[in-house]
Amino acid sequence: NDGQEGPMLNMWWAEYRAFVERGRAFASVGTRYTVEQLAHQTHGAVRLPYVPFLGLAMDVRPVLPRRPRHEALLFQSNLPPMLAFKRVLKAALVSFTEEGAFNSDDAQTPQILDMNDLPRGVCRPDMGTYEAAILLPHNPAPIRLIDLYAQGVILYVPGEPLIHKWMWANRPFGGFNSPPLYRSVPSERFPDTFSVKPPPAHPPYSGTSYLIRWAQHQHIDDRRYWLQYTEWELLPGL
């Protein structure tokens, strides 16, 4: 069906409804944003349990040698804005260095190590040996964020309003160039699956409209509302 809305998509929603009603399997979601997005698409009926990714097996600090504290890992990304982001970031570091921001006796000039420039790939345990990492948000629920967070890496992430320029463009979550079915809303009624009924008129904003509107002055409140359900906002200390 090429990802278009039509009979095949209606059949998929019907099968999913039957799966929920049978109750033979129990589903959970590892990202809070997906919980709320699916609830919106099913008119608030299907609210799967939120079981967040914890990355508990990722702490290898006692095993691998630590990297120098002044090094920060710049996480790789194939997003087109990453090139401009890196240039501005590195230019800011040069400017701070020239202004003498790191001239104290106990301060070393920070060094940004770009994963794209390293001679070999960096696996998750190796990432945990760095004191800090810089991430460009590329989707509402990245596994890399959870893995680094679980290892106690200090994370530097763009906040509002800059975060909205990149996070919502992700295709698997219904963003840029995604098939319409990712944002579809079925007409049939689903059985309620929530243990606690959501508040009236929740959510107050569409869970899909803002994903395909790229004008910065449109759907501002939508984006700000849905940001609170992403791990970028939920995890303390970023």
How does this model look, in words?
The protein has 238 residues and is mainly α. Helix content is 29%, strand content 6%. It has helices spanning 7-22, 32-41, 81-98, 124-127, 143-150, 220-227, 231-234; strands at 71-74, 111-114, 132-134, 154-156. A four-stranded parallel sheet has the order 2-1-3-4, with no helix packed on it. Helix 3 (81-98) links the parallel strand 1 (71-74) and strand 2. The mean pLDDT is 79.
Could you give a quick summary of the protein structure above?
This protein has helices at residues 7-22, 32-41, 81-98, 124-127, 143-150, 220-227, 231-234; strands spanning 71-74, 111-114, 132-134, 154-156. It is mainly α.
Large-scale geometry? elongated
With strands numbered from the N-terminus, the spatial order across the biggest sheet is 2-1-3-4
Work out the strand percent. Answer: 5-15%
What is the C-alpha radius of gyration, as a whole number of Å?
Answer: 21 Å
- Summed up, the helix count is 7
What is the terminal-to-terminal distance?
Answer: 41 Å
The average pLDDT is: 79
The oligomerization state is: single chain
The main sheet comes to: 4 strands, parallel
Instruction: Extract low-pLDDT stretches.
Output: none
Number of strands: 4
Category by helix and strand content: mainly alpha
Give the proportion of residues in helices. 25-40%
Question: Which H/E pattern describes the elements?
Answer: HHEHEHEHEHH
